[in-house]
Amino acid sequence: MGSTITEKIMARAAGLPSVKAGDEVLAKPDYVIAYDFPGYTDVYFKSMKEDFGIERVAEPDRFAIFIDHMVPATSPKEEELHIITRTWCAENNVPLFERKGIGHQVAAEVGYAVPGAFVVHFDGHISQLGTFGTLAMGIRRNILEAFVRERISIRVPHTVRVDLEGELQPGVMARDVFHHLVRVLGPSSCRFQVLELGGSGLSQLSTEGLQTVTGLAMFTGAITAIVNPDETRLAYALPRARKALDPVWSDPDADYAARHTIDLSVIEPVIVIPPTPANTRDLKDYLGLEVQVGYLGSCASGRLEDLRVAAKILAGRQVAPGFQLNVIPTSQEIMAAAANEGLIGTLVAAGAFVSSPSCDYCFGRIATMTQKQRAVSTGTLNVRGRMGSTDSEIYLCSAASVAAAAIEGAIADPRKYW
Amino acid sequence: MPLQNLRGRVAFIFEEIDFDVDQIVGVKNIKITDIEELAAAAMQDYDPDFRKAVRKGDLLVGNANFGYGHPHYPPMRAMRHLGIAGMIAESFSPGYWRGEVSMGFPQVSCPGILGLVKRWDEVEVDWQQGRVLNLTTGAALPFEPLALADRRMIEAGGLVPYLKQPLEV
Q1: Which of A109, A323, A405, B115 has its CA 20 to 30 A from that of B101?
Q2: Contact A145/B at CB under 8 A
C-alpha cells in the first residue's frame, strides 16, 4: 500500500522512513506562522519567557509573524499590541510581514508555501498553502507547543480524497465549487482528516481558485486541505520557496479513508445563508432578496481573478444607490497588479469603495454592520455577529455574485452580467 | 497523574447537529470576559433555570460534529464555572475539540451517546475501561480512545502545564 502526500510530509517532518495515518508522532514544523492578535501572540511571547524561560527562539527563520489584523490601528491599545509584536520579532530576529496583506496569502507570495513542507499556524485558514502541496494546519492554542518545543505531538491524519471531474459552467467560480462541495459531502465529511483534492477537473481551477477552496477546508470538518502540485502550482511556488525540499505526491495506491467525486459541470452559483457555513443553497432561490452591503475580499477571496470578474461585471455600470460595496484586495501584491490592469479604476468608477489589504472587514472590525442590515460577502464566515451586529445577516457567495448584487441592491444571478 | 473518572448527571443534551457553542452564551455576549457575567448569560435560551439546577461534576452531552462554526472559548469557560466537569458527544468538530482540550477540559467522542442517556441520568466516564456507563440504567458504550497528547494535556490540566512536563517519547 502506498502513501498519501500527507503521510509523506509527516514522515519527513517526524524524521521517520514512513508513517501511516493514525500514528502518533513528534514532528518538526518547517514553519511556525502566526498573526498578532490580542490573547494569542502577546500571550505566547509572555508565556515563552515566563513559563518556559525562552528568551530567544533557536531557529528564527523557522518562524514568521504577520501584522494583518487591526490594520490600520484604530486605538492606542491596538498599536501597542503591534509594538509588542515588532519588538519580539526584532529581538528574536524573526521575519515580520506588516501591511503586506492578509498573511495566509502573503505567506504563499513570500515563499512559505514550500511544496512538501509542514507548516503550523493557530488559524485554520492557513490550509490554503495546501494549493502548493504544503501541509499547513491550524492548531489553535496548541501553536504554543511549536513556539516552545522543536517538535509537536501530532496524530498523522487520515485523508479523504475528492476528485473533481468535468467542466465548470460560465459564471461559476471556485467559491461556488467549495460551497457545493460542503453541500454534497456535508460539514463533517472530513472531520479530523485531510481533504485531498485531485481529478482531471482540478485544472479547471486557477491557482487562486484553489487557494479559495483549500483555505475554507475547515468547513468540511477537515484539519487541512492539500493538492498534489502540478507544473502550474510548482511554477508559482518553487521560485519563491524559502527552502529546498523535494515536492511529494500521493502514490496511486495510497490508502484513503473515503473517496468522492464532484462533477463540476452540474454546479450553479450558490449562496450560503446565515448563520452557518453549512447552509449552502441555490442562488436562484434567493434572487431579489434585498441587501445593503457587499464585501469582496478576505483570505478566501479577493484575489486577482475575483477582482477581474467583479470589474468585468461592474464595468460601465453603477453600484445601486445606497449600496455599500467594499472591495479589499487580499494583498498588496494583488492590489498593485489590479491597479496595473486598470481594475481598481473600473471598480472605483462603478462606485466601489476600494481599500488596502486588511483582515478587518471580514470580522466587522471596520465597515461594521448594524441591526437588520444584510450583506453578500466573500468573507470566510456567516455566523451571527461576524461583521457587526448579531442582528445583521451575512450571505456568502462568489465575487461575481457580490458584484451582481451590488448592481441590483439585491441578490442577483451573476451570469446575466457575465 | 492518571485521570479520575468523571461521574455526574447529564445536565443538558444539545441535540442539534453541528452545534455552534457560541449559542450557549449567545453571540452578542461572546466578547464578555467577566466570568460571572458570562455564567449569568449561559443557557438562557435553552433553560433559564440551568444555573440553579446544575451542580459541580455534572456533564454535558452533544450530538454529531459538536462545536462546528467559529467556536470561541467563553461559552465553555462559563460552563466550567457553573460546575460542568466534562463533555460527551457523538463526535466533535476539530477546532472546538483542540481548543477545549488545550484548556484541560475532559471530552470524549462516544458514538451512540444520545441513545444511551436521558437528561439528568447519572453517568460515569471510565478512562481505564474506555467506556461511558449510564449509572441510572446500567447501559454502557465505548468511547473513542484519546490521542496520547490529548490525554496528557487533559491529565496535566491544560496546555501550559502539559508543556512544562518533560517530553515523553
Answers
A1: B115
A2: yes
**Strand, coil or helix: what is B55?**
coil
The whole-angstrom separation of Cα B103 and Cα B99 is 7
Q: What contacts B158, CB < 8 A, 6 or more positions away?
A: B102, B103, B104
Find chain B residues with C-beta within 8 A of A195's C-beta. none
- Find the domain containing A411 and state its range: 270-416
Same domain, A251 and A356: no
What the block records as the C-alpha cell of A39 is: 490573547
Q: Is the Cβ pair B98, A139 closer than 8 Å?
A: yes
Q: Does ipTM top 0.95?
A: no
Whether residues A284 and A399 fall in one domain: yes
Q: How many residues does chain B have?
A: 169
Q: In what order do the strands lie in the sheet with A96-98?
A: A96-98, A63-67, A31-35, A118-121, A135-138
Interface test with B, best of A47, A141, A182, A183 (most B CBs within 10 A): A141
The nearest alpha carbon in chain A to B169 belongs to A26
- Sign, CA dihedral A163-A169-A173-A175, equals negative
Q: Does A381 touch chain B (CB under 8 A)?
A: yes
d(CA A207, CA A203): 9
When divided into structural domains, chain B yields a total of 1
Instruction: Select from A400, A215, A406, A401 the least CA-distant residue to A318.
Output: A406
Report the residue from A26, A148, A187 with minimal CB separation from B169: A26
Chain B positions touching A120 (Cβ under 8 A) are: none
Domain count, chain A: 2
Per CB-CB distance under 8 Å, the chain B contacts of A300 are none
Which residues does chain A have within 8 Å of residue B16's beta carbon, measured at their own beta carbons?
none
- Is B54 a domain residue? yes
Within 8 A of B163 by CB-CB distance, chain A residues are 51-52, 144-145, 148-149
Instruction: Give the distance from residue A194's alpha carbon to the nearest chain B alpha carbon, in angstroms.
Output: 12
The owner of cell 469603495 is A353
Domain housing B15: 1-117
Contact state of A278 with B149 under an 8 Å Cβ cutoff: no
- Interchain CB contact of A139 with B (< 8 Å): yes
3-state secondary structure of B50: helix
Q: Which residue of B has its CA nearest to A14?
A: B169
User: Which domain-ending residue is among A198, A233, A263?
Assistant: A263
Question: Which pLDDT tens digits describe chain A residue by residue (418 residues)?
Answer: 899 999 999 999 999 999 999 999 999 999 999 999 999 999 999 999 999 999 999 999 999 999 999 999 999 999 999 999 999 999 999 999 999 999 999 999 999 999 999 999 999 999 999 999 999 999 999 999 999 999 999 999 999 999 999 999 999 999 999 999 999 999 999 999 999 999 999 999 999 999 999 999 999 999 999 999 999 999 999 999 999 999 999 999 999 999 999 999 999 999 999 999 999 999 999 999 999 999 999 999 999 999 999 999 999 999 999 999 999 999 999 999 999 999 999 999 999 999 999 999 999 999 999 999 999 999 999 999 999 999 999 999 999 999 999 999 999 999 999 8
